[in-house]
Amino acid sequence: MFKIILCVALIVLVGQGQGLRQKRTVAAQDPSRADLPTLYEHFTENGINSGLEATASGFMLNGKPLKIVSGAMHYFRIHPEQWRDRLRKLRASGANTVETYVAWNLHEPQKDVYDFGEGNNDFSLFLNLREYIKMAQEEDLLVLFRPGPYICSEWEFGGMPSYLQRDPNMKVRQFYEPYLDRVEKFYTQLLAQVQDLQFTSGGPIVGLQIENEYGSFSPKSKDYIAYLVLLVENLGFEKTLLFTSDGVGAGFSGTLPDRLFMTANFQGNPEGNFDALLALQPNKPVMSMEFWTGWFDHWFEDHNVVSDQSFANNLEIIIGNKYNGSVNFYMFHGGTNFGLMAGANTGGDISYEPDVTSYDYDAPLTEAGDYGGKYLKAVEIIDRYETPKLSRPVLPAESTKATYGSVRPTKYLNYEDILAQVPGTSKFFLADATSMEDLEMNGNSGQSYGYLIHRKKTPANNGSVLKAGPVKDFAFVLVDGVIQQSSFSGEGNRRYWMNSVKEVTLENIEDDWHNVDLFIENMGRVNFGWEEDFEQKKGLPSGTVELDGELVQGFEVFALEFKSAWVKSLSNFRNVEDVATLQAPLIVQSSFIVNGVPADTFVDMTGWEKGIVFINGFNLGRYWNDAGPQQTLYLPAPFLKTGENTVTVFEQLKAGSAIRFSDAPELGRRIERAINVEL
Ligand SMILES: *[C@@H]1O[C@H](CO)[C@@H](O)[C@H](O)[C@H]1NC(C)=O
Ligand SMILES: *[C@@H]1O[C@H](CO)[C@@H](O)[C@H](O)[C@H]1NC(C)=O
């Protein structure tokens, strides 16, 4: 997505339902296709002599013409037990390729600790990338591989690991040796996982992207791009088509025109974009590497959508006869920013706009993998222009959705109970305020995600003023565990203190010694922008804390990471006697029974204010009611089991009375958004 966004037209669509709740009746396969070959039968029947080539007469794969119809689906945003279903639904649309990014920050959660599915990390389950790519081939799809190392993608820090920032001189995405060293170490591990899965070696990978929208970065370094090209060639990708993807307005600034195939990213105006691309790169096929099917959501906004009709009109022009272009739907199926992995933008009133947990994206397949209106339109249009014509799988059925009713909190830990269970390795005594990244924990990698508490035991008076900041990102002050309401500006649930300096008056306290806590939440590192936008330390990286005008020093610091293993280990819960007396911040826990085979459901936290939800120890993501637009969290069936399940909630601000499981998503008020990139 682009820094330069012109002419954002907003049309509010009030009262338009999602219309996706019922299972669709699935059409039988078109009998006229029954005799057609599969993709791999067609392209590899006489052995493999060459990979994907961008020629003056279009894409050729192993010497045969191909129009690429690809869909973006990220393995790290989809429960692995649902990978096959989603891949098959992509192939059943007539698409022939799946595109995926790679999330470096998941695969190398600590410096030099790699995880491709065999680790013991919160996301390990999702990280068998090799399996995902092999499965794509089993499902008769080619693969476009976009390993970054920077991916943008509304993903925490654009996929980069937070510990890069421990180097005070770090320059990510530039020709800066310590950055390149980390990239080289990671790529050496990563590309070894998939090197033999290139098409020319009998696998599905036909193209690899170099960096990501580098033309939108500043300052740019061609040496960095050249370095990445050399690196992937040396790691065995010299025969796979290497490409870049940018807004066409970036010209050649993000690519190496003699070496790399250029593609264009846009949502509308395909003619203008393709004409500009052809002017830059004549005698090559045109491809939209990111044809934005919808858009993502920030907290405090409405749910951004793109109309099915404008999507269809633009798709017809992209792949139709005039341009005979190729496409990658971004997204075909968005999935979910599980846990604390949603990214953010700079912008808005406070120069910071964090993203919600859902990555539904208003894409052809919904967050829960159901067929949206765009899916049916895409099938029609792909049918007209598919090259070559191939057989297809039958449309898989949509999943059943269940409601598991309403679960009351039965056990809880209050704020002090929680802090008492923070392990010694996550507690520090420090003279000065700190960032998360600079903490000495996680094998020299600092704290990446979660919450940070600066505690000062100090005399304070009724009416004392604590001044702190700029806080990164969402913060409040507690005195002896009681939230100070003057921490927030704004009304109702739209109250917050975020990314700024603030004076907080300590109210209704005795003139005495108190535990004064500054609680700060990392709401997601910025994933898009220029050099300065990627300085994204969290906590109190540059700020100070003052009490009644005096600098405060000597803190007890708690790093609250909320990793799964810790959440599962929590003990000494108290019994809930009366939900009305529960006081946040707190953790509540309850169990509930799933009878029979678990089904997809949606967690509705109405009545609560802001927090995170764990199912059987896995962090589904954030809720922030009324800050919305998102009102429910997608809970994929594979996180549930038959019998007893545990739901655990960390509520920061106001406990509710029940956790509800509903059979339909609520992503907020829909608003139509046209994103025009500068040509
Ligand atoms: C369109 O592209 C396909 C795939 O590359 C090719 O086979 C076909 O000849 C092209 N059609 C025209 C009219 O150029
Ligand atoms: C704190 O000050 C306010 C305003 O003067 C007063 O209403 C309140 O009773 C005081 N609280 C305590 C605990 O002294």
Describe this structure in words.
It contains eleven helices and 36 strands. The protein is of the alpha+beta class. It has an eight-stranded parallel beta barrel, surrounded by four helices. Strands 28-17-29-34-31-32 form a six-stranded antiparallel beta sheet. Strands 18-27-19-24-21-22 form a six-stranded antiparallel beta sheet, with no helix packed on it. Strand 8, helix 6 and strand 9 form a beta-alpha-beta unit. Helix 5 (177-194) packs parallel to helix 6 and helix 8 packs parallel to helix 9 (373-385). The radius of gyration is 25 Å and the shape is globular. The two termini are 14 Å apart. The model is unreliable at 1-22 (pLDDT under 50). One 2-acetamido-2-deoxy-beta-D-glucopyranose is lined by residues 58-59, 65-67, 324, 387.
Structure described in brief:
The protein has 679 residues and is of the alpha+beta class.
What percentage of residues falls in helices of 4 or more residues?
10-25%
Strand content: 25-35%
Terminus-to-terminus distance: 14 Å
Q: Calculate Rg over CA atoms.
A: 25 Å
Structural class by sheet pairing and helices = alpha+beta
Number of helices: 11
Mean pLDDT: 95
Shape: globular
Strands of the largest sheet, in order across it?
5-6-7-8-9-10-11-13
Poorly predicted tracts of residues: 1-22
Bound molecules: 2-acetamido-2-deoxy-beta-D-glucopyranose
What profile does the largest beta sheet have? 8 strands, parallel, barrel
What is the β-strand count? 36
